[in-house]
Amino acid sequence: MQQIKKIELKLAQWYDSAPHLPVRGQKWLTDNAWWIDLIGVILSAIGMLMIFLAILVATGVLGILFGIGGVAIGGLLLVAALINVAFAIVEIVFLAMAIIPLKNGQKRGWNYLFVVLLLSTLSTLVSFLFHLNAGGLVALFWNAVCLAIWGYFLFEIRRYLVGAKAASRA
Fold it and tell me: Which residue range is the domain that position 95 belongs to?
């Protein structure tokens, strides 16, 4: 937990030097983060199930069309997908745990979202190991950009949730 706090403080320094949203935008984002998170949980769960089912179908089709080689490629694809699904399940659980604390304006909700950001970063790096090619490098780049943007918005609401309650913000 101490390491996560150190990472949080280091990232806070980086994001503090970035331009900020207007105060009204920061407050709106803070007040509405809980339902944005709720939508994210629902869409993530649906997306995770759809991707998992697509990988299972693709694995079967590869086996049928290409025989032993297709089964080997399908097996590697299945392992990569299962690792991603495992990360996704953990991330969805943390996202769901963040909803009520965010609705109440508690820092604990922000902490859960920060853990999801860290897990997503780790998931991106692990996924890259399965795609050591130009396509994997492009995916790594775009995932890094998306994670940086997500981190920006996450740290924009941090100042309103550090030890504050919803009542004191209003």
Answer: 28-169
Short-list 36, 39, 35, 58, CA closest to 47? 39
| Helix (H/G/I), strand (E/B), else coil: 144 | helix
Position 56 scores a pLDDT of 78
Identify whether 4 is part of a domain. no
pLDDT at 136: 81
Question: How many domains in the chain?
Answer: 1
pLDDT of residue 162: 65
> Is residue 55 one of the residues assigned to a domain?
yes
Tokens of 159: 């100042």
Long-range contacts of 79-83 (CB under 8 A, 24+ apart): 79/130, 80/127, 80/130, 81/51, 81/52, 81/55, 83/126, 83/127, 83/130
Identify the segments of the chain with pLDDT beneath 50: 164-170
Which residues have C-beta within 8 Å of that of residue 160, sequence separation ≥ 6?
A: 26, 27, 30, 105, 169
